[in-house]
């Protein structure tokens, strides 16, 4: 049984620099080599399509991800670190079902949980060590006929291209502040985040889950700046992203990584 876990304003200036990263996606290359995996799909009526998945992006349509998304198995999901990364996917090996010469680009937005009631090669599609993608049927049908079901594919990591700037959605209560970082170009996945008020220095944030980052600090009535680092070691700083009178539930837009 397949289970998926469900879980803009102004910027005054920005700087970009390189920082050390312990993740293994090289900033010197925009892509990785093609690697083998398999893919299944879920139907449009499935509620997980609306919820947005384990990365915390919420309504994928409203937040700009649409149907170009994927849920990833354990070996690819990396405990949520991969959220926001982009992959090119193509159908291979099965001439009965593949649509020749086609590929799709999807963003990692969800987790395909393992089901240890089945063997990896006997129904446990997302069990380790399987590399597996779960796609919306709309995306799946761009590379293969839907009757193919569990298809062999190839995938490779690529740079993300996004419209507009990085989005910071504020949530929380009191001194607890949670920030969802979304619409990230370049590497796509964030490995470190800092926040700064007008009366504070730079404060490191912790990853809560997916691309939700949090901090306990009194930052009300202060304009907020953000410094984020992607997995290829690039750091992007956006000053005064949120104005002094920001409120929980609002989304603000900063600068964007180069692609």
TrEMBL record:
Residue intervals of the Expansin-like CBD domain: 175-254
Keywords for this protein: Cell wall, Cell wall biogenesis/degradation, Membrane, Secreted, Signal
Keyword Oxidoreductase (UniProt): no
Signal peptide: 1-19
Source superkingdom: Eukaryota
GO cellular component: extracellular region; membrane
All residue ranges annotated as the Expansin-like EG45 domain in the record: 52-165
Pfam family, one: DPBB_1
Gene3D superfamilies registered for this protein in UniProt: Expansin, cellulose-binding-like domain, RlpA-like domain
Subcellular location: Secreted, Cell wall; Membrane
Biological process per Gene Ontology, one example term: anatomical structure morphogenesis
Protein topology in the membrane: Peripheral membrane protein
Function field: Causes loosening and extension of plant cell walls by disrupting non-covalent bonding between cellulose microfibrils and matrix glucans. No enzymatic activity has been found.
Family designation: Belongs to the expansin family. Expansin A subfamily.
Entry protein name: Expansin
Organism of provenance: Nicotiana tabacum (Common tobacco)
Gene that produces this protein: LOC107810643
């Amino acid at each position: 049984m397949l289970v998926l876990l469900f879980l803009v304003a102004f910027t005054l200036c920005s700087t970009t620099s390189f920082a050390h990263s312990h993740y293994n996606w090289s900033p010197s290359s925009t892509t990785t080599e093609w690697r083998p995996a398999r893919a299944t799909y879920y139907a449009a009526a499935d509620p997980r399509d609306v919820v947005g998945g384990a990365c915390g992006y919420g309504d994928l349509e409203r937040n700009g991800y649409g149907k170009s998304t994927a849920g990833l198995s354990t070996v690819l999901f990396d405990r949520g670190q991969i959220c926001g990364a982009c992959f090119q996917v193509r159908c291979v090996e099965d001439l009965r079902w593949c649509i020749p010469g086609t590929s799709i680009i999807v963003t990692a937005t969800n987790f395909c949980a393992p089901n240890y009631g089945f063997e990896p090669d006997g129904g446990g599609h997302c069990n380790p060590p399987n590399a597996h993608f779960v796609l919306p049927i709309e995306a799946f049908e761009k590379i293969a006929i839907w009757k193919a079901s569990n298809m062999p594919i190839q995938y490779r990591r690529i740079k993300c291209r996004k419209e507009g700037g990085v989005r910071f959605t504020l949530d929380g209560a009191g001194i607890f502040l949670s920030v969802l970082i979304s619409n990230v170009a370049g590497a796509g996945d964030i490995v470190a985040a800092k926040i700064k008020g007008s009366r504070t220095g730079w404060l490191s944030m912790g990853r809560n889950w997916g691309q939700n980052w949090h901090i306990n600090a009194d930052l009300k009535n202060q304009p907020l700046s953000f410094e984020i680092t992607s997995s290829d070691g690039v750091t992007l700083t956006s000053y005064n992203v949120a104005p002094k009178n920001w409120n929980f539930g609002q989304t603000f837009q900063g600068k964007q990584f180069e692609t």
